[in-house]
Amino acid sequence: MRKFQMFVFGSAVVALTIMATIFLPQAGNAQDGRSGAPGERSRMQRMMGTEGPWISIALKHQSELKLTPEQVATLEKIRTQHRDQTTPIREQLRAVEDEVAAALQNTPANLIQAKLGIEKAEKLRAELRYQRVEALENGKSVLTPDQREQLKNLRATRHQGFRKQQGQPS
Description:
Layout (H helix, E strand, L loop, with lengths): L1 H29 L12 H4 L7 H7 L1 H4 L3 H37 L5 H32 L2 H21 L5
């Protein structure tokens, strides 16, 4: 019976370690739009829709949207403020994810420490998401209704191009 319990416990530790190795490093990077390579975004981030990088897209297509210099300056300021506000949160999230991974590497895994770390990481992710939504809402308020509509169309066109590139039907 003792051998069976050790087998079950060992299997659980191995399973948790494998899941931590697979999912935790990606979770920390997914929030800042990187999945490994610089400039590369995860599939989930590319498909985010309303929480996607609207401000960056607007700035990239400023001539098509006919943005005024004041609009461009305001959007750049919003983007910079967002980056400055979220950088420390992202760093904190990475540190917490490292702590969780370390807790799961122990034999036996420190499940209490892992759970507390996971909960803390989720709070940080929620804060990052709220900061992103707030920045996007501030950015939308800078655009005219026509520019917002034109931006939606640009985003839809970009999304369709991505789906075709991936071999998916549009």
